[in-house]
Amino acid sequence: MINAIKNIEPSWVVPKQIQALCSTREGGVSKPPFNTLNLGLNAGDNLEDVLQNRSILRSQLPAEPVWLKQIHGATVSTPSSRNAFISGPIEADASVSNKPNEVLAILTADCMPVLFASKNGDVIGAAHAGWRGLSSGVLENTIQEMLALSPVLRPEDIVAWMGPAIGPSKFEVGDDVLEAFSPQGPSILSKAFESMAGSPGKYLANLYLLAQDRLWSFGIEQIYGGDFCTFSDSDRFFSYRRDKETGRFASLIWISEQS
What we know:
Blueprint: E1 18-22, H1 47-58, E2 68-69, E3 76-77, H2 79-83, E4 90-91, E5 94-97, E6 104-108, E7 112-118, E8 124-129, H3 131-136, H4 138-149, E9 158-162, E10 172-174, H5 175-180, H6 186-192, E11 193-195, E12 202-205, H7 207-218, E13 222-225, H8 240-243, E14 249-255
Parallel strand pairs: 2-4, 3-5, 9-13
Antiparallel strand pairs: 1-14, 5-8, 6-14, 7-8, 7-9, 10-12, 11-12
């Protein structure tokens, strides 16, 4: 029996033509440990179940999503690069669009999905921001590509929503992660990394604060979200850190066609 699909709608202020949602793990057909709405093809789940789950999700969307082969990098897929694409998966960790009903999608299970929309509703973006992509500039690259799609667009004209990711009380990291973010400066590092007592070289990291700092530095003034924890909320979210073998949920955004 398939349970009703239960999505989360971003709480942010954007034009009415901007549509966005984040799926949860509820409403699909996958068996444990992928139960139930696993949308990730490479998580180890049964292929037919994943495709059926994607079909369930597709019934709520205006078009098949632009699925990416995410590799924890900072490459952004653009309309022009997709037009020139011949075959095979799109290897990127973010995408942008100015085309009505083109659905951008990011798959995650602890990494942070970040959705972007221009205040006039003509350009959107979606980024996969785990610590590697975040420290490599995937958010900045996504914003740059949005600006390239609209000559009059400025960073302050863009709104961002930070979707469900592992929370600051559960994200244990080492010195390598701290070092990756060192260019952001000691002020934010002291807030975003908490040393773990009795564990030298180990920290609790706050992805939301790190992302917020980078967005502010780039000129993004309106930032929403950041109040989830995929690790702690096992009813709604998949978490790789928590379960190792698990599914993926999707964060999606599109510009609806106006009648």
